[in-house]
Amino acid sequence: MKTFVILILLVLLAGCKGTLTQGEKEARRQVQAVAGSYRPEGRKPELPALTTSSSLGDFLTYALLNQPQVEAAYFDWLASVERITVARSRPDPQLTFQMDIQQVVTSLMPGLMMSFPGAGKLRAAGAVAAAESQAQYFAFRTACLQSAYAVERAYYQLYFLQEKIRVNRETLTLLTDLAKLARAQNEVGKVTLQDVLRAQIEQDRVETDIASLEDSRGALLAQFKAALGLGADQAAPPVPQRLESTPLDVTSDKLLELALAQNTRLKGMAADVRAADAAIAQAYKARMPDASVGLMADVKMNPTLYRPWGTVSIPLWRDKLAAEVAQAQASKHAGEARL
Questions:
Q1: What pLDDT does 153 receive?
Q2: Phi–psi pair at 165, nearest 5 degrees
Q3: Quick check: 49 and 66 in contact, CB under 8 A?
Q4: Residue with more model confidence, 190 or 77
Q5: Which long-range contacts (CB under 8 A, 24 or more apart) does 19-26 make?
Q6: CA 240 to CA 102: how far, in whole Å?
Q7: Residue 182 — very low, low, confident or very high, per pLDDT cuts 50/70/90?
Q8: Average of per-residue pLDDT across 266-290
Q9: Which residues make Cβ contacts (< 8 Å) with residue 212, sequence separation at least 6?
């Protein structure tokens, strides 16, 4: 009896660890690689200080580390990786307890029960979770690319807006000088009043254009601020004063080839198809029965009476099993169509 109790205590207190699947190992390697730079030690790293002379790379780094949408996608991915462990793990053991009572307690039987899912069920569930985790990984990468695109779009638009305002102001200076010259020449009869009015009208038009451009600058600055992950109550970011452009030394055909090879949305859809494949295999495994075994010991008996017992589930409802397979197959067809 003491041996039985000691065995139960060892199982409960020591705990157990399952065996990592290949998909789980790969997912955790990806997490370690990304977390080292994105969230080292689980914390947001120090953000780069932004100034008007900061490079485009500094603004991109700031946005990727600070953008809430990227952070949400990152933690969704981390949660999906942990679900692999949950899916492939065996059910927890259960303590059982039974007593027979007449005038007094005639039997007292503590015990331990373990459940064993059908052959291959846990492996199939782990494969589904691993494929879904890959889809979440590519969703995180997509969020990173979308954040970078939003920063670059606002960055270039702001720069060209400022350049347009600068050119218009220089044009306004020239037009102002021309208007003064036209008035002076009109006074001595060299030009007509119509020429003076024409110069003033052009001057007013450019002033109106500058005012409109200044108004649109506020909207672009708000977009730039949002792209950097800054809230409405935070100060506006500095606007870069110099332009950094990426040299485009590849052909359009090469660009298309790179886009198809590196597109994270396509890779995420491919991962969804793999998850559907794994779900089909898991659905077929539902036909395998589950088993539970246990052992109880009557401590009131001398010598101790041991009572082993077990149960086996019966996958009886064939229409339910067929529906699970059909559902998984339909999900795969939908994923293939999206891809």
A1: 93
A2: -65, -40
A3: no
A4: 77
A5: 21/84, 21/88, 21/123, 21/126, 21/127, 21/130, 23/84, 23/126, 23/127, 23/129, 23/130, 23/131, 23/133, 23/134, 24/81, 24/84, 24/85, 24/88, 24/126, 24/130, 26/130
A6: 87
A7: confident
A8: 90
A9: none
Q: Which residue matches tokens 């790293």?
A: 45
Enter the DSSP assignment of 170. Answer: H
The residue assigned the tokens 């503590």 is 110
Domain range 2-338, CATH class: mainly alpha
The per-residue pLDDT for 10 is 56
Give the tens place of pLDDT for each residue, 126-175.
899 999 999 999 999 999 999 999 999 999 998 889 889 989 898 888 88
Contact (CB, 8 A) for 335 and 279: no
Cα(120)–Cα(186) distance, integer angstroms: 97
Domain ranges in the chain? 2-338
- By the 8 A CB rule, do 124 and 285 touch? yes
In this prediction, residue 5 carries a pLDDT of: 53
DSSP annotation of 42 reads G
Q: Which two tokens stand for residue 87?
A: 């899916």
Burial of 271 (0-12, 13-18, 19+ CB in 10 A): buried
Residue 14 pLDDT level (bands cut at 50, 70, 90): low
The residues pairing with 115 across neighbouring beta strands, listed in sequence order, are 292
- The tokens describing 293, both together, are 């075994």
The pLDDT value recorded for residue 316 is 86
What is the three-class DSSP state of 222? helix
Do the beta carbons of residue 18 and residue 85 sit within 8 Å? yes
DSSP string, 97-162: EEEEESSSEEEEEEEEEEEEPPTTHHHHHHHHHHHHHHHHHHHHHHHHHHHHHHHHHHHHHHHHHH
